[in-house]
Amino acid sequence: MQFQLNPKSKSQTSLKIFPLKSDQVSDFLRQNFPQQSISELLFSGKENTHYAFSNDSQIILLLGLGDSPSYKSVENAFRRVLAKQGDWVKENIELNFSQIDQVDLMEASIIGLGLGAYHLDFFKKERKEQFQKLKVAIRSNSPEAKKTLFRAEKILDAKLEALLMVDLPPNVLTPKYLADWAKKTSKKLSLKAKIFDRKKAKSESLEAFLAVARGSAKEPQFIILEYRQPKAKKHIGLVGKGVTFDTGGLNVKTQGMHYMKSDMGGAAAVLAATQLIASLQVPINLTCIVPTVENAIDKDAYLPSEVIESYSGKSIEIVDTDAEGRLILADGLAYLVKNYQTDHILDFATLTGSAVGTFGYECAALFSNDESLSKQIQDSGIGIGEKSWPLPIWKEYAKEMDSEIADIRNYHGKPLAGAITAATFLQAFTNEHPSWAHLDIAGVAFGDSEFAKTKSGTSYGVNLLLNLIENLL
Questions:
Q1: Which domains does the chain have, with CATH numbers?
Q2: Which residue of 100, 156, 270, 289 could cross-link 114, Cys pair, CB 3.0 to 4.6 Å?
Q3: What is the 3-state secondary structure (H, E, C) of 4-35?
């Protein structure tokens, strides 16, 4: 898909799209299509409504945005165009912003239109590829249009990468796949990539990370991406959970295993966000760490009741092998804290069913020891539909993770406060870093939507991280 801003060529388009707020419909039709008489009962510009008619061999599509359109509602409205009315599109289309000058809504529109071309048919004999060479003319008189288009294209590219990572099957999306992606992206965007295989991870004493990987024939990969900007005044650290498939280990999952290819949603978020930050040349220093493994079962799989070591030096009693994500994150966090001087640390992980039980599929569970950072995370996501809400990490909860035999245990074994106790476990490996936040995205990284017949990725966290980092500058 190719976007062009105000192209000089007036070539005929098969589809022309006009986004309209509720109070713009009457005047717009009178000035531009006086021959059209459309009853308000058919189209009044309400949110999630549209009206189409033909005009000189073109299809004119009016998209209703409502009275006070949100970023996410606009993104979804435009995603529906190609996802559900794709047959209307032949060679090129026009997106006309003559009635919309808000840059955030323009951005959401462009991103949404691009996302509409995304489908899950990766391995079908006949794929839906009619939009690969699609030309999209953007008509706008806004002085911010060029900048908005550039930014929207970069966000779209990053979101598509995050969606692909989560949606690919686990025989394709392996730890090696993510490591190769990091290497390729580092060359394209002048990042520094370091990849630790099993042998190198052993020499670095990443023992908790390696314990989870023991049951899989797939080589674990400890991925580090460094983005450095000469004008940067802050250094942000990101850690993402990268379990490419989770059987639960010897505490094998009894339901929902079919969807466990999504257990690397945190890795997808931070890797795609790193790509986005670098492609926009945001003046920040960024270190992204993704410990990625497959949690499988064989004769070497780690056992319930084992005591394992960790990079931090803390010993960990294994109560449940299905609480594996926090183990690899523990080594990722500890490695980041010891080897990099960061102003803020954020980790993203599809960590607990408890977070889903608390917030459903509406927002992420947010934990932080920095109230200001927590508030900025909430504010950075709310406007774009990537919500998060704080839960406490009081020291009373940390006592639940006390172990008789080791420094800490990986699960308290109780059907309560699961997301909170998991967060307190992670905090134990941050070495009292003063500004750390953990987002449990189990309910928002992967789920049902109107754009697929099965659960699929959401790219949650990518746009949130961009907004947050820009706000932190």
A1: 2-143 (3.40.220.10), 157-472 (3.40.630.10)
A2: 156
A3: EECCCCCCCCCEEEEEECHHHHHHHHHHHCCC
